[in-house]
Each structure stands twice: as structure tokens, then as C-alpha cells.
Amino acid sequence: TMALCLKQVFNKDKTFRPRKKFEPGTQRFELYKKAQASLKSGLDLKAVVQLPPGESINDWIAVHVVDFFNRINLIYGTMSEYCTERSCPIMSGGLKYEYRWQDDSKYKKPTKLSAPQYMCMLMDWIEMLINNEDVFPTRIGVPFPKQFQQVCTKILTRLFRVFVHVYIHHFDSIINMGAEAHVNTCYKHFYYFIREFSLIDHRELEPLVRMALAWGG
């Protein structure tokens, strides 16, 4: 069956990073469960991403950022054996797009990295942010920082680049693994979410724009 096939494809041992979990009993855990239930019910993905009545937009964004990190982390983990220093010496999306890495510690200027290096830096950086209580508070009553949505935009913009690289450079591997439907659903969900809340600059979306147009995005 498809589910069994995906279980084999998305093997837990291949997860690129440990999964971040929502604590049971918290408001955010309940929101996560609500989002997952809608997703599994087969509702239109454009409807699934809409903010439920009475919920906080920052909570909704936080839940999705963590969930997308986990999912994309898993997708890249399964592709990582095909994405090597030799096959992908530059983090890119075809010949037209190259992504350089910059952070506040080791790489203060945009720096050329191989795709595997870039992915490693990216997943570490996101993990550090989502586990930082000052950025992603988990206790009820603790407010989100003023720059929370800006931080999420940066995270989601960089996660989008994982899709760009995987689709443009490793799509044959996705097909060979029988994972095309799963990756496409994850990407559609991600795309509709960032469009719903205008979380990524439309210029960043250009590398996969034809794909979005093909399914009426």
C-alpha cells in the first residue's frame, strides 16, 4: 500500500535532525492536532491553511513553522544520500539560482557552500531558533517577540530553498523512491500556507513558479 511504501521511504533512521515535538496538554499541541486532523480529512489545502476562528495568528504560524521544519527535514533526510559534495558543490536551483549562507556567527557575509553544507547549517540554525524560548515561547501567557513573524519569514524562505533544490536537482530520485505524491502534497501545503499569510517575498518563489501555475496556484 501507499502508506507502507512511504513508511519505508521516510525511514526514521534517515531523519536529518531530531524532530521537535509539541508538548501534550499545551494550547499549541491542541492547535497542532486540529491542523493535522484537517490535513488528514482530505480538505482542500487552501482551506486547511486558513486561521481557525478565535485562534492567534502567531500560534498558528508557530505550529506550522515547526511542522514544516519536521517534514522538510525528513524529506531532505531521505534525499541526502543523493545530495553530495560531488553532485551538488553549490547550493542552487538550476543554473539561474544560487543560494549563499549567512548567519550571525560563523558566516557573517553571504558565503558559497555546497548543498549538503548549506542544508546542515540551515537545519541547525532553525533548530536553534525553534528551541529558543525567547523566539518561540511555549509557556501560556508568554508573549511572542515583536520580530516573530520576521524570523518566521526568514525560516520559511530558507526552507523553500530546500524544495527548490530537491525539485530541480533530485526529482528523478523522488520519483524512483515512489515519494513524488508525498513531496508534492507537502510542497502544496507549504506553498498555500505562505501565500495565505504573505510570508515569503514573491520573487523568492520564482524558481518553482511554473509548478504552482500548473496546479492552479
From TrEMBL:
It comes from the Eukaryota. Keywords: Kinase, Metal-binding, Transferase, Zinc. The keyword Cytoplasm does not apply. Pfam families: Mob1_phocein. GO terms for molecular function: kinase activity. Zn(2+) binds at C83, C88, H165, H170. InterPro entries: MOB_kinase_act_fam, MOB_kinase_act_sf. This is MOB3C kinase. It comes from Motacilla alba (White wagtail). The gene is Mob3c.
